Amino acid sequence: MPNITFKYIDDFSFNTHDRPRPAKEFVPEWFKNISPYYRTPENPEGKLIVENFHSNASAKKCTPMLDAMTAGYIIPLWTDVQVRQINGFPSITWKVQQDVFELHGPNSREVPAPPGYDQIVFKYINKLWIKTDPGYSVSILPPAGYYDQTFLQIPAVIDTDSKDLTPTPFPIWIKSGFEGIVEKGTPIAQVIPFKRESWTHNIDVAEENEYWYSLNKWKTRIGHQYIRTSWKKKRYE
To answer: Which of 185, 72, 176, 49 is nearest to 130 (CA)?
Structure first.
């Protein structure tokens, strides 16, 4: 199996920071708590029901969504921090004797913030040297399934097999108007390694009845069609 190494750059970080862990350990509680099949007054126990050519499966049965949530590794916040609004601008403070965040710099306003987040960009100070095998890079993304995060990671791709690469800070936006404590262990970023490859693309149209036959062959199974016919196991240890 290919390998990814998270190497701390100093003893202090190694001995105080929460470790990166496989994303499968951070599946959000809302996903764990929903019923596999929709409950209704007529079906209060949430049993499987097939009507009008469809089942009542919920997002809990969506394997592609779960694959996204469990892909790669999560970088957690290693200490509690406090966010306050001072003169209309967010401020982040902490008690530990090491910097946790810093302003991105004078050009931080150039990247348009998504709705609900302040335009100012902060950097989560990353003490991890991420190294991958030759030919592999990493995508750094907002943690999948965490849709109401105080800190929102700005997506990036880094070629982590370079021997000259140094730890890269994680740029983040802060939720507009938020004040409060963000607890240690909160997922900050999702790191997904991938093999670099060159691609071409083409555009085509299905032959007559091709889609119709495929769809009905798919529906010959009441449940787990995707897992039985298409899904491939992924491992991140």
So the answer is: 72
